[in-house]
Design a protein that fits this description.
About 20% of the residues lie in helices and about 35% in strands. The protein has twelve helices and 40 strands. Strands 1, 3, 6, 7, 8, 9, 12 and 13 form an eight-stranded mixed sheet that branches. Strands 17-18-19-20-21-22-23-24 form an eight-stranded parallel barrel, surrounded by six helices. Strands 25-27-28-33-34-37-40 form a seven-stranded antiparallel sheet.
Length: about 725
């Protein structure tokens, strides 16, 4: 059967179904729900359904707004739908073809009332039984969620769904939902000729401003014999045997290919490694305060076995317990690397000499198990599922035959789970962990350590390869940034921004302890002069580390929900790689010079995938990109009543001063910076603009009374030393 275009279908439905539609809207005529000889194929196509739907939701009377603000329906181009229903002895089958000018997906069923969805409500003839289901195109998959009865609420695995989407020439999208619901899920309804019930179909619309409302229709249905013939089901294509990870406490901590979700909120994690065991506990609060001031929300720690159990016998983990308790109170997430092999930065890999001296593999295994039980008892008390700060645990087995790595990793993970640790389990640069065809390996997230990466170009390639493993977000650690070492810290800032540009969802700086003197050996003894660096001694390079933290703090939620959109940006300089990471409401643009030798002056063109808006960035001048650098430009950040469309200078902070909004940005010395904002109405005086060059600051005040090209206002500000 030939498939019709949406405009033709709308016209036919308007003519053929006008009488039936009016009757149904009034609660009058029953509609025959035909029996089919074979179930439809759930492929998102309508070839095995009649050319015309049973009813079309395309009238003003179908619109049910969520508030008076959305009282006026946007018309068929905004949201409308056609509905088909059929049945057989096993299930009730539905197809809903949706026309929508903007597809808004959500991350999980916990947010299902925020994005686009369809709601199917079945009410028995006596109106005493209601079964209601929600189907939504999530960021990953198309689950069906039971809403009623409340006692059975939750995801329904027995209901199968097929969804297909396509763009239309008019700019919107066409999306087809096909749903098969077993009669067992619709009790007390039965697959009996003459059975009557009411089906309410609601097609809910979110165009990025929250749930606006639904086009909705009540359909009084009766099961009839007359029907139509559909083609027999075809064998399903063979899919690769890859498994998603499973989590002991998914409401508290989980990850997907986009980001970590901690306590139900998607988060972009940025942190630093702190050698808690090498610092006096009296200095821990100051170090964590500096870390939080740098915009970080994560602490990375390594638990060196040799420090806590230098001799056989009971381990002393009091320092670890005390440090984690402090992180609990400070509200910082913690990544705990507990080995048992801690890597090259610790003498002997952090493994006690008495363990290395054990000749029997069985004896070493027994020692590892005893150690993990002791450290797991501490981690369990601070686990995220217990309201604590431990959000992820990194394991790394003792060096052995590579063929044994998978078994070693599985054993370590199983031991931690058996001891009650529910935080996600990570490892670093372990090929065995990239095999997600076995559930044990799918449950272990591999991450990238930068110690073996020499250039930004290599880093981009490594993160890209890691992202193709399909078992979770890219986590980049081992970014060198020793405090007080200007070259190291500047390199660290560049690596951080390169990692974000490549799509990393968590970045961790190693050997960077704010508040530690340059003479401190973070892996050695306590320094003789235990004083903090005065604030004036902070270097410009370390200000770059703070800058990345500020970017993450202000637009981190948008980045955590963002899709990579490399094709949205084009640059006039072939030596510069451009990428965008965008959510429905904001994100960031990244410009990358992968280790060039001279500075670039770049002009870019950006097309917003959500709105189709095109703009040049910058609108005046050019962006100065130093050789080998990565520049991060914020996009669509709320600023007071308006929106920061973009800034060629990087975002450092936002604050309220009285009724004014203060926008703090950062630019290279002796270069021009451009800021473009838009307002819902005529622009007013813009709040204070604080300009920062290294440790030098000045204030300027700007105002504007006219819009630029009808899209808002912009100004050009030059920063000089």
């Amino acid at each position: 059967m030939a498939r019709m275009s949406t405009p033709v279908m709308i016209a036919l439905c308007a003519a053929v179904l006008m009488t039936a539609t009016a009757a149904v809207a009034a609660g009058g005529a029953e509609l025959a729900c035909p029996r089919v000889a074979a179930p439809p194929v759930l492929d998102g196509a309508l070839d095995d359904w009649p050319a015309l739907p049973m009813v079309y939701l395309n009238q003003d009377s179908d619109w049910r707004p969520t508030s008076q603000h959305f009282a006026v329906w946007g018309g068929a181009e905004d949201v409308s739908a056609g509905v088909w229903v059929s049945w057989d002895a096993q299930a009730c089958h539905l197809a809903v073809q949706v026309r929508d000018d903007s597809l808004i997906r959500v991350r999980s069923v916990a947010e299902i009332d925020h994005g686009d969805s369809i709601v199917l409500s079945f009410v028995s003839e006596d109106q005493e039984a209601v079964n209601e289901f929600v189907v939504a195109p999530l960021q990953r998959g198309y689950p069906v969620y039971r809403a009623r009865p409340a006692a059975r609420a939750g995801e329904v695995r027995t209901i199968t769904v097929g969804i297909a989407s396509s763009q239309e020439d008019s700019g919107g999208s066409r999306r087809v939902y096909e749903v098969t619901i077993p009669w067992s899920e619709l009790a007390p309804l039965k697959p009996t000729l003459g059975e009557k019930f009411t089906l309410t179909v609601s097609v809910c619309d979110d165009d990025g401003k929250g749930m606006e409302g639904c086009v909705e229709r009540r359909l009084p249905l009766v099961l009839r014999e007359s029907g139509f013939t559909v083609r027999p089901p075809e064998p399903a294509p063979v899919q690769p045997t890859t498994l998603p990870p499973a989590f002991p406490a998914p409401d508290d901590a989980r990850f997907d290919e986009r980001c970590f979700v901690l306590k139900g909120q998607g988060r972009l994690l940025y942190g630093a490694e702190i050698a808690y065991d090498s610092l006096s506990p009296s200095r821990w609060p100051a170090v964590l305060a500096e870390l939080k001031a740098a915009g970080m929300n994560l602490v990375g720690i390594t638990v060196p076995w040799s420090r806590h159990q230098p001799q056989p016998g009971e381990a002393d983990l009091s320092a670890l317990n005390e440090f984690l308790s402090l992180c609990d109170r400070e509200g910082l997430w913690v990544q705990v690397a507990l080995g048992p092999y801690a890597g090259e930065k610790c003498s002997g890999g952090g493994v006690p000499g008495w363990v290395l001296a054990l000749a029997s593999p069985a004896a070493r295994t027994a020692a590892v198990e005893a150690w993990l039980k002791e450290v797991a008892a501490v981690l369990r008390a601070h686990d995220i599922s217990q309201g604590g700060s431990v959000a992820m645990v990194m394991v790394r087995p003792l060096p052995s035959n590579p063929a044994a790595e998978a078994a070693d990793l599985t054993r370590l993970a199983q031991m931690l789970r058996a001891e009650g640790v529910s935080a996600p389990i990570l490892t670093a640069n372990i090929p065995a962990a990239r095999d997600n065809t076995a559930q044990s390996m799918a449950n272990i997230l591999d991450t990238l350590s930068c110690y073996s990466v020499s250039t930004n170009a290599d880093l981009l390639a490594e993160i890209g390869a890691l992202g193709r493993e399909e078992n979770g977000p890219a986590v980049v650690s081992g970014i060198s940034g020793r405090y007080g070492d200007d070259a190291s810290a500047m390199r660290s800032a560049g690596r951080l921004k390169a990692a974000l540009a490549a799509g990393a969802k968590a970045v961790i700086v190693s050997d960077f302890a704010p508040g530690v003197t340059p003479e401190d050996d973070l892996l050695g003894a306590e320094p003789a002069a235990g004083v903090l660096l005065p604030s004036g001694a902070r270097t410009a390079a370390l200000d770059e580390l703070r800058l990345v933290g500020a970017l993450i703090r202000h637009i981190g939620p948008a980045l955590a929900a963002a899709d990579e959109a490399d094709d949205a940006v084009t640059c006039d300089d072939p030596g510069v790689r451009a990428a965008a990471r965008l959510s429905e409401k904001g994100g960031a643009l990244f410009l990358v010079d992968a280790e060039g030798e001279t500075a670039h002056h770049v002009r870019c063109s950006f097309t917003n995938p959500q709105t189709g808006e095109q703009m040049a960035i910058p609108e005046a001048g050019a962006i100065a990109l130093p050789a080998g650098a990565v520049k991060a430009l914020p996009l669509n950040v709320p600023v007071g009543r308006g929106v920061l469309r973009y800034a060629t200078s990087e975002l450092l902070g936002l604050a309220k001063v009285g009724e004014r909004t203060v926008l703090v940005v950062y630019g290279e010395a002796d270069t021009a910076g451009e800021i473009s904002l838009s307002w819902p109405g005529p622009p007013l005086v813009v709040g204070d603009l604080v300009v920062r060059n290294g440790t030098r600051r000045r204030r300027s005040w700007s105002s504007t009374t006219s819009t630029a090209k009808g899209i808002g206002a912009s100004w050009l500000t030059t920063w000089r030393s």
